[in-house]
Design a protein that fits this description.
This protein is an alpha+beta fold. The protein folds into three domains: 56 residues; 55 residues; 59 residues, Roll (Nucleotide Exchange Factor Grpe, Chain A, domain 2). The chain has five helices and six strands. A hairpin with a 2-residue loop joins strand 4 and strand 5. Helix 3 runs antiparallel to helix 5.
């Protein structure tokens, strides 16, 4: 072998084992494209999360204040319930005027709460829902099925789609007058 051929061989081997510069650049471009897409996706996720947090903050910012206000609404309801219609009809004009004022203030308070997304928890269907109601006692059912709402002791409220305060209710207990099971048979 000549000296020239020996020198060309190692260079040829090195050239064969060296990566193609175009392939390297293409791989780098693909990597950078992938990084760019991931960065754009992350930026979009951050923007969506910020929008959702902003929306939640504006919707639920009044939560603490609303909790205090529903206590006032409870007091108006108690005041009105303390004077049944018969006594109200028999009362003198000044007392009726005061009760009318309390009723009007109660209606205005409830309308204002509703305008800010605070609504009473529904108990009309009579079904007990542990996510919305808090059972404070089991009472005779008065013809209602066991586990259903018998009486609402304190109204519950929602703010948006979150529970502000559960409704405090009494629940019908199982009828204990059912025929005893004969264990001797």
């Amino acid at each position: 072998m000549s000296e020239e051929t020996e020198q060309e061989m190692p260079e040829a081997r090195i050239a064969d084992s060296a990566p193609d510069p175009i392939a390297v650049l293409k791989a780098e471009v693909e990597s950078l494209r992938d990084q760019r897409l991931r960065a754009l996706a992350e930026a979009e996720n951050v923007r969506r999360r910020a929008d959702r947090e902003k929306s939640d903050a504006s919707q639920y910012a009044v939560t603490k204040f609303a909790r205090d206000m529903v206590s006032i609404a409870d007091n108006f309801s108690r005041a009105l319930a303390a004077c049944p219609p018969e006594l109200r009809a028999a009362a003198d004009a000044q007392i009726r005027a005061v009760l009318d004022g309390v009723e009007a203030t109660d209606r205005q308070l409830m309308a204002t709460l509703e305008r800010y997304g605070v609504k009473p928890v529904s108990t009309e269907d009579g079904k007990f829902d542990p996510n919305l109601h808090q059972a404070i006692a089991e009472v005779p059912g008065k013809g209602k099925p066991p586990g259903s709402i018998v009486d609402v002791v304190q109204m519950g409220y929602m703010i948006g789609d979150r529970l502000l305060r559960p409704a405090m209710v009494t629940v019908a207990k199982r009828d204990e007058t059912a025929a005893p099971v004969d264990t001797k048979a």
